[in-house]
Amino acid sequence: MTAELGHYALVLALSVALVQATLPLLGAWRGDPGWIGLARPAALVQCLLIVAAFAALMYAYVTSDFSVLNVATNSHSAKPMLYKIAGVWGNHEGSLLLWLLILALFGAAVAVFGGNLPAPFRARVLAVQAMIGVGFLAFVLFTSNPFVRLLPAPLDGRGLNPLLQDPGLAFHPPFLYLGYVGFSMAFSFAVAALIEGRVDAAWARWVRPWTLAAWCFLTLGIAMGAWWAYYELGWGGWWFWDPVENASFMPWLAGTALLHSTIVVEKRDSLKNWTVLLAIVTFSLSLLGTFLVRSGVLTSVHAFATDPTRGVFILAFLIAVIGGSLTLYAVRAPAMKGGGLFAPVSREGGLVLNNLLLSTACATVLLGTLYPLFLDALTGEKITVGPPYFNATFGPLMVPALIAMAVGPMLRWKRGDLLGAVQRLKFAVIATVLALLATLVAAHDGPWLAIPGIALGVWMIAASVEEAAYRLRLFRVPVGESARRLMRSPRSAWGTTFAHAGAGMVIIGIVASSAWQVEKLQVMRQGESLAMGPYEIKFQGAEPIDGPNYSAVRGVFRVSRNGAEIAVLEPESRNYQDPPMETTEAAIRTGWGGDLYAVIGDPTGDGSWSTRFYNKPMIHWIWIGCLMMVFGGLVSLSDRRHRVGAPARRDVPVKAAKTAASMAGK
Amino acid sequence: MTRKQRRLYIVGGFMLIFAAAAALVLMAFEENIVFFYSPSELARKSAEQPIPPDRRLRIGGLVEEGSVQRDADGVTITFRVTDKVDVLPVRFRGLLPDLFREGQGIVAEGSLATNGTFVATEVLAKHDETYMPKEVAEALKKAGQWQGKEE
């Protein structure tokens, strides 16, 4: 019964979304306040209906209702509760329902918190948001209905892919989707602004918090995915430039560029066309990512569906959204004149450089991701574009962006002084030179690229810190005065400091963990030891154990340093029953200096086991750096100007004025 | 600074970065694209023209029954990959993926040594038991040896 209710709620949601996508738009055009006013309640009702549908599916999972086909294929009664819940989005249909839920939640958030938006503009935003909703609701209802019944019901389900039965992965998709779908807000605002033919500082101020929130979620989602790959796949790697990873990384790159270009629109009323285009591109890349992953053109853990009708549907939807919005852009954009002028060396100039480099880097990733698909479709030749391609193209493009990132915040708006900015960063320059020398001495036998790599990370962190100190005039005015400045300086500036320093930490983590990693691959007998750097690892033996829905072999390794035991590593090799599958559970010991990573492989037959160990220096800096970037985003999000002082438009555009007048008249 | 000048700078900067990116992409494509071959395709290609041992390739097929052997060091494994037409010996040093089985489809990345053995640096087996890597399925179909159901 609940399944049917869920299905019914989705059908109702589709009809509400159809109304929400059309009438408010017409109302805003004709200046009809009644139709404009429809947008808000429609968004709320649509959201409630989708929440109901999602709850119905979750109920079916929690109660293990195997008469629902989706539950029967993806769940199992012996599964721990967390994974029953996470199983809702661990499959094609359910994950699309999650997509929809988040889309509707964002729509409802605009309806609730968008009080400071002019009513016609809000109506247009919500209408565009509903158009996306119509597309996805139709997709779910016509090709991927999660509520299909399976009669007679099987006694038990087929279970969830064991690789996905992991706390890290349980929350990876929701965060990723919050990011992907969050960019739909930037898209809806951009399209609404194009319809009105007006982009200004107030617009940028409305768009920015949504973009910032989406960016934080996406950063967190990607970081969680990478972390999961690191500890679950047992290869010690965390990023493989796999097409599915790229699908989430491209919107991140474009979104990061968007985040920076909205600052220019907000502060200087410049780069408007570009920012609107970027908003469209960012969401288009999110859709493309969904298409790549969901259509089954890529084969990977993520690709649940391999049904061609679904692929065709998403492709058509993709063409409609991207084609439609770009056509609108082509018609409207030339009329939007850019405002403030600026010199090449200036804060704006720095942000333009950031945008150019990020979007070019994004384009190279796009090319590398799609090229094999095109080649296969056109010539039938099968190729792989692997990490070497991305390292050779993406890397060199990012380096200038990262160097410039430290200087940018020190430049003045309109016309900056590059030499002066570098002089004000003298301590950062000194720190960088010291880091360069220190790594040169300490690690001269590693790959030489690691030396400038570490220096680059130190430069980014040190410059961020020094920029903050400069802002507080630390040590140049009395401490009390600095403290007062600390209280008064805008949070968005602090957000920049944290996010940029976090990016520096990520760079250091990547460089150190890949350049100075030590790997040992060895067959070990019980009682045998091996030396790895300063550590000695002793194999105590392997024992069989039983988990809730798997059996496993657990290896016990005692790690000591200078004779003192510091850790016991217990990697497992698990054997799941439903579905039958083996997984590798690495054991990781995180210390101040980095991670020690142990994997137990197959028995060789004569009582010994193949084992693999890694020593990965400073790899945790990657995770900490990502969290710091997210923290920076959140700090910036809490900036006063997003909370109080509703961004007001200076003058009212003609159409809106007409609407306002007619509203006042009624 | 006028509007025109600013546009000139931005467009100039864009062209510069774009040119650099294009150059990087072309160079990277030249060196880093990895082609996928089935054992029979590989045999044909290397008969036409010897493949240099530093060229990275991907191969795929079924692991031949009874062909998996472990060297004395315990971590080097040799096996044969077949598309039921040709057979290719493969050497791999490392931990095999969880789903590596005789008779199962795998994909390996590495290079062809001069003695005709494929030296793999990475072996991929897909994530569930019934699943056949797409490349392998198509290679088997091409060789006329596909026994699964038609899609």
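qc> The first strand of chain B starts at residue 33 and ends at 37.
qc> done
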